[in-house]
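Lab notebook page, bench 4
Experiment: in silico fold of construct C2
Operator: M.H.
Input chain length: 234 residues
Purpose: comparison with the prior construct
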Amino acid sequence: MVIHSVFDVLAWLVAACAAFWIKPRLPDAAPLAPALRRDYWTALVVGAALGAYGFGSLNLWISGQPGVARSIEGAIAGAVLAVELYKRHAGVATRTGARFALPLALGVAVGRIGCFLSGLADFTHGVPTTSVFGYDFGDGVLRHPVQLYESAAMALFAGAYLVGLAQRCDWAVVNGFYFAMLFYGAQRFVWEFLKPYGCVLGPFTIFHILSLLLVVYGATMLATAQKSADETSP
């Protein structure tokens, strides 16, 4: 799936450009001490890789599909878990997510277009539908193009985030990443009902569960934001 790889690279480039652009516009964009940054990024990358392939492949197995796959939600969940565990181990109380909100939103928005263009082989399409949004991926069956639903949702979040940043709203400047986690998890939870994945608990797929965990994570971090600021202030 060459088209998928092309959009994967494009998504990474867009995310990298967004990260470069956002860095000088946020306070304490790199709050970690230099000695901790290598291990921080190692935890992030390793956690993302393990989560992407672990949850992506597990979902295929649960859904009765052979092979290995990667999942963007698995990558996000793996990276968040690995970084939080590393920070706890290293005694880092500072919140470090601010710079990732815009790159995450734009990266997902672009990357999902590649999933859509890859068709049925990518196994990210939706279930059959008779709605006006139905799309024929090549086999004569109209399905929900859930990849585009997610792409549009994250593009809307990116737009709202940029407006908030321009207005110097606290939710964007300080807590944008945790709003991104909450929003990403919530919208992904909805789209999961439109996918042909195997269920693990009642009507819920493994990605329903991951989505709920991301919502809980984002909400918890937002609820404790002021307490964290008070504890880390000089």
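Observations: The chain is about 65% helix and 5% strand. Strands lie at 135-136, 142-143, 199-201, 204-205.
Next step: discuss at group meeting.
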